[in-house]
Amino acid sequence: MTVPVDLADGALGLYSAVGDAFAGRRLGFGRRRAAVAARFARRRGRDEDAVAATWYAGSLAEVGLVAIALPPEAGAQQRTLAYADAPLHGARIVAAFPSAPPRASDIVRWHREHDDGTGIPDRLRWDGIPADAAALGITHAFLEAVEDPDEPREGVEAVFALAAESGRRFAVDLVRSFREFILAGDWDGPLAFARSSIDDDDAIRLLAQRIDARDARTGGRSERLATLGTMLAQRLDLDPRRTARLARLLALGRATDPVPQDDFDPFSRFARDGRAALAHRAGAIAASVAAYAADAPPLAASATWYEDGNQEPLAGVLGLLLAVDALSPLDAPRRLAAASGTQFAPDTTRAYLAILNEAP
What we know:
360 residues, mainly alpha, Hypothetical protein af1432, 17 helices, 2 strands
């Protein structure tokens, strides 16, 4: 099955937004990079397979950052060495997508190489750098200049600034071709091509697992929350599939560096404040992708307490899931009884306690 790329902004969009979040960029940067890079590939006469591969690579170029977790005390050299591996991690993630064109992972791996051999991860140079990867690197640098939060530039100004890197960071002929492409004025025009669809639920599950794996304290959490969320949804007459998806999407809140503090007592005010930041980040990432915009409100509200009033049922379930995951089942009945009606909705609390009582 194929779908137009402009209608396929689902789980791939989430992966792209996670890459944006880890890189500290405005959400949507990766998808804008993908669109410009794919248009440039088409302008250069590349076939449709290469255009599709470039779009995939442009969307997911920075997703490899999800695999890098450094302690707060890491020094500059340790960080430099770790981040040099980000394109390698990204290439493996892209290669794992069954619908990704075969060349997409290679473009991700080598899009940060420099013409003079100073790039990462393999220090390729000159014609050793695949042209599609080099073109993505130029597109990335161009958009960084256009969207610089401190000094944004118009497209024409940004493309002429690339001239300073011509022959060093970027190949002279590609810079010239890219300049002509931008000056033609259609670099931000419409883009459409067909690509294979993916199983979004499975892709989200894998993404949540990757984020969980960054911290030993959260290993396997998303699947535990999804399983318990499904059971609670069935008892509370909520949508089990959506509840499981939301439970996994909570992991998006930890798409930040360094790894956020996550070991407060789950019923404390400190935990609530920290969880609110994570909840709002998860909601913002979901809201940036059209297919998941409706999931943003319950994600963002998952840190609210029942006593705050007007709590959405799904948000209340998510908040309870996060709290009880940090509790021993033996300790949960006492702690939840004290929090019922204040932190958690009484019916949600009762549903969870009933599940505990039925456990073998």
